[in-house]
Specification:
The structure is a homodimer.
Chain A lengths: L6 H20 L2 H10 L18 H12 L8 H22 L3 E2 L2 E2 L1 H5 L1 H20 L6 H25 L7 H26 L4 H28 L2 H4 L5 H4 L5 H8 L2 H12 L7 H10 L2 H21 L5 H15 L4
Antiparallel strand pairs in A: 1-2
Helix pairs in contact in A: 1-2, 1-3, 1-4, 2-6, 3-4, 3-8, 3-16, 4-6, 4-7, 4-8, 6-7, 7-8, 8-9, 8-12, 9-15, 12-14, 12-15, 13-14, 15-16
Chain lengths: 336, 336
């Protein structure tokens, strides 16, 4: 399927990349090398590259949220950079935690520089995200920093749940949805509102954008969960059935387990058993037969509808709403 | 040697512990278990304990710094809690990075709960430290959060250097001192001034306290470096010569290598060689013969003198200065 990448993404990438580069090159040399590699600014030897640095979905939302508040997009710039840094902090640590050796078809930072340097580089990005907002001299800096800190704390809590769920087979759909709201929804909610916060927008506009971002985040996670089981490795950069291999209780798995009956029991037994590798294809089939995939794709659509609904009730300018809408469509069209 | 623990430490522990417990129990359940264990509030099964939670040196400095600014010690409470959280974030991650299996004679958090949960718990404490300052509704909250973010970023940079130095044998004394200033000095500098920042003290008082804390931090690190080679394992909780085993370029090692000549060359060869385990006792002897230990102990004394000097020039009330002095003495008396 050919998808049109929203123009807001390219605009955000152009706006944010110079700032990201500048901050990266101000980091201490040992951290800088790891971060420059991870962000695609340099190869493993430190030579400059023009590697694809990701889609800049979060910065795009941040910039649009300033426009939604009637302010120039640049108002959101510190926020756009900060949310992108938090996102990359989480990628650096997640790759260590999940022991993933590849990201965007390159070795991950820990695989190249070692676990210690990857952990420390993630820590550095996390602190930098706060510093940028606190030192921006922006009247909304404290509120934006506080909003981002809360979102990041939620994301970290979601990550802890995700990990803890791997050793359980009684994770309910509500628990999996709550985890997705925290792990992915919280940072997207912050990204989609931080520009409005920096622009001093009204509470109702900030609340509508926050709700839009949170639902969009769950929709994004739902699609990601489908790809994590059935996505081709060319798209995901990971082997097939990878989330099942890691015993993740992603949305399709929780939905399938929640159906009960002998098939769900069989799935639970595979996911808690020792010889999981040989039974991955059976597990994937069971999740599908139990309706886990269809339910999750439906949930993505429902969440996008809820995200749109939050926008429509907000009184945000129609043109900006149209752009936010495009971002939402892009998220759910991300299939295979 | 019997040492008198400064009364400020016990006072700080009493003031900070209830807040630390309260915040810990507000964390999400999976993170809470790891943090409660790490802080000594619970055992491995989650049962309450009264395990020694460390000396509370940083909270003690934070509370004293409010007094130094003529404000009630309580003014510093959010800062005292925040610096203690950052300290514990660094312990959680350092234990993962250094692969240390024991701390305070108990298994480390990663050894018990897994690497992933320990990394995530550290991340959670880091964010919590910012949230406490940003959400305190304190007029100095933004400045305190900014000060702590800067100190934490410096500490993380120092940790990255510490790691990178392990694969080098040409680390100069200046580099090792710079690393110690960042890794340990920065957070102590922040701890020793954050109460004054929250109290809205004058720049000169904040600057004097910052300088006091930074020098004290280097003194503390110098003693720690001596213990890291020659300390008995009952005191350090680690096997003898541990810093040499990890090829750390701590202050005694950098000082010894900097002397040059055949003994320094021999030391460099051991520290970059493969069969290091069998030659640790020779390496320790070489560091001592090359004057690395004496120089480092001298540096600790010099730094404490510089710390005191910063205080004397500050015009801070004599009684508070006396208490800060006691903390400084305690730090350098920490031998074997």
């Amino acid at each position: 399927m050919i998808r049109t990448v929203p123009v807001a993404f390219a605009r955000a990438r152009d706006a944010v990349t110079p700032a990201l580069r500048r901050y990266t090159y101000q980091l201490s040399p040992d951290i800088r090398d790891v971060v420059a590699y991870h962000l695609g600014f340099a190869d493993a030897e430190g030579n400059p590259t023009t590697q694809d640095g990701g889609k800049a979905a979060r910065p795009a939302l941040a910039l649009l949220s300033a426009s939604a508040a009637g302010a120039p997009a640049e108002t959101a710039l510190p926020g756009a950079v900060a949310v992108e840094l938090v996102h990359n902090f989480s990628l650096l640590h997640d790759d260590v935690i999940d022991h993933d050796g590849e990201r965007r078809h390159r070795p991950t930072a820990w695989a190249l520089f070692g676990v210690g340097q990857a952990i420390v580089a993630g820590d550095a990005l996390l602190m930098l995200s706060q510093q940028i907002l606190l030192d921006a001299g922006h009247p909304g800096g404290l509120e934006a920093a506080s909003c981002l800190a809360r979102a990041t704390a939620d994301m970290i809590a979601g990550q802890a749940e995700d990990l803890a769920f791997c050793s359980r087979v009684d994770v309910s759909v509500d628990e999996a949805l709550g985890m997705s709201e925290r792990k992915t929804g919280a940072l997207l909610a912050c990204a989609a509102s931080i520009g409005a916060v920096l622009a001093g927008a009204s509470r109702s506009v900030v609340a509508a954008l926050t709700e839009f971002g949170r639902h969009l985040g769950v929709a994004y996670q739902a699609i990601d969960d489908v790809l994590g089981i059935w996505g081709s490795s060319e798209v995901t950069g990971k082997p097939a059935w990878n989330d099942l291999r890691e015993r993740k209780k992603s949305l399709p798995v929780a939905a399938a387990l929640g159906r009960g009956g002998p098939d769900a029991a069989r799935l639970a037994s595979i996911l808690s058993g020792e010889r999981i590798e040989q039974r991955l294809h059976v597990a994937a089939m069971l999740v599908e037969d139990l309706g886990g995939r269809v339910w999750t794709e439906g949930e993505a659509d429902r969440r996008v509808a809820m995200a749109r609904d939050a926008l429509e009730r907000s009184g945000i300018d129609a043109e900006v709403r149209g752009e936010l809408d495009e971002v939402a469509s892009f998220v759910v069209e991300r299939r295979f």
